[in-house]
Design goal:
single chain, 7-stranded antiparallel beta sheet, about 0% helix, mainly beta, about 200 residues, 17 strands
Length: about 200
């Protein structure tokens, strides 16, 4: 069973100085030439948590699709290609990675869960579930379970359960499926390959 501890993730500052990102997981891109003259991201998909501390432009990711979920703070106002979207806590929002995106912080700083996938190759999904102490929630292959709030443990097979801290991530498995028990909210991120 693999647990990615949030406390161990390195904070990378944004180019525009408006926040920092901590990468939870990614899949490297097979060797490919530079795309669109802007350079490749180096990954086919990435799951990260970003702290937004200043209004401003989001970095564009041409050829990618984003699913953004506010996980801490109250509101984020996004303008995506000129259309405004009010982002409330725990409500995932999908948009094109190459879209001109501007953020405003009407109620202060926010923290976002970001799932970015290469369009046409992978599709990302984020679901927010309420945990139960009585019924375990499994995390399957191709999924990450990220504790957003509350207290939880995760166990697989006959091993001892491990405590999860806020924003710790559990890597899913079909062989020895991790099960999360507790009180609070869990983001379940699924990354699915797109079938031709």
């Amino acid at each position: 069973m693999e647990i990615i501890r949030f406390a161990d993730l390195k904070a990378e500052p944004w180019r525009n100085g408006g926040g920092v990102t901590r990468q939870i997981a990614s899949r490297p891109t097979p060797a490919s030439p530079t795309q669109d003259g802007a350079g490749d991201t180096g990954w086919d998909w990435r799951v990260s948590i970003a702290d937004v501390t200043k209004a401003g432009d989001f970095s564009p990711f041409p050829g990618m699709e984003r699913v953004l979920t506010v996980v801490e703070g109250e509101l984020l106002l996004l303008s995506v290609d000129g259309a405004e979207h009010l982002m409330e806590k725990y409500r995932p929002f999908r948009f094109a990675g190459g879209a001109a995106t501007l953020s405003k912080l009407p109620t202060g700083d926010v923290r976002n869960l970001n799932v970015i996938t290469r369009a046409g190759a992978f599709k990302g999904f984020t679901s927010i579930i309420e945990l139960s102490k009585k019924r375990a929630h499994p995390v399957f292959e191709g999924q990450l379970g990220i504790l957003l709030q509350g207290q939880a443990t995760v166990g697989a097979g006959d091993g001892d359960p491990k405590d999860l801290g806020r924003y710790d991530a559990v890597v899913g498995s079909d062989a020895d499926t991790p099960n999360v028990l507790g009180r609070g909210f869990l983001a379940v991120v699924s990354i699915d390959p797109v079938e031709d």
